[in-house]
Amino acid sequence: MDRNAPVGVFDSGVGGMTVVREIIRQIPDERIVYFGDTARVPYGSKSKETVLHYARQIMEFLKTQKVKAVVVACNTATVYALEEISRETDIPVIGVVEPGARVAAAATKNGRIGVIGTEGTIKSGLYASYLKQLNSSFEVIGKACPLFVPLVEEGLWHDSVTDEIARRYLKELKEKEIDTLIMGCTHYPLIRSTIKRTIGDGVSLVNPAYETAVQLRRVLEWEDLIREEHSDNIASQYEFYVSDSPEKIQKFANSILSFEIHQAHQINIEEYTYDDDRCTDNH
Q1: Which residue among 65, 78, 117, 194 has its CA within the 20 to 30 Å range from the CA of 131?
Q2: Which DSSP letter does residue 18 get?
Q3: Does residue 2 lie in a domain region?
């Protein structure tokens, strides 16, 4: 494996850019190829079969980019597809659920941990499963917050509508007296200030994006895949692809990254096919 090859990162939309931002901070010399499935966002309300099919298509695209590792920067795709796509490739594949659960377990004082995410992430109970493995006495309270993703995608980060939706969603968690809250969707850190203001200062917010970047660095070091080259032109290290509306992710990236990107590419992700029936037969 070429250690100077890029790392692939994918998400259902633009939210995975929060993971890209953390990877750039943690391992700034790494090249990144990002794919946001903006034509098919959100994933959270879709079936496991559908999300797994999407993830396999995206993996086929990332293979054409000769990536050396993949970060599934989407909680729903991590829940529904990580195990299968990891088994179907010989490169490291990292999800966002386990790193976030480990941090929450270390942060809680009273053992009551809240998880907010898409319907798929919450219904799966995967965060609760990881947390219970770490400490069986933890009380884990999940709350699906499906409207947060479209609000973030529309750029309504500081808006009265988002404030009201947050109050409604988080009311139950406040009543449960949680002391730690996992933002179980990569879109959510972009409305962190709203979530923090609503849930209260006494609750620690866990951003799995940061911990996922740390985990990626560890894996690359372990596999001896840390990039050796250094680029003076920072923007040239990163390539951005979407399935729809490239101008949207370009604007979004420029609002959260420390440098400006000048182009994002739109591709037809449906052209990248994987025989799902063959996967079922072989695995």
Answers
A1: 194
A2: H
A3: no
Residue numbers annotated as active site: 74, 185
Determine contact, residues 224/3, Cβ cutoff 8 Å: yes
Do 218 and 154 fall into the same domain? no
Which domain, by its residues, includes 151? Answer: 97-208
Q: How many structural domains compose the chain?
A: 2
Relative to beta strand 238-242, strand 265-266 is: parallel
Buried b (16+ CB within 10 A) or exposed e, 28-60: eebbbbbbbbbebbbbbebeeeebbbbbbbbbe
Under a CB-based contact definition with an 8 Å cutoff, are residues 272 and 57 in contact? Answer: yes
pLDDT for res 282: 43
Single pTM value for the model: 0.88
b or e along 192-205 (b: 16 or more beta carbons within 10 Å of the residue's beta carbon)?
Answer: eebbeebbeeebbb
Tokens read off for 121: 């992430």
The pLDDT value given to residue 277: 57
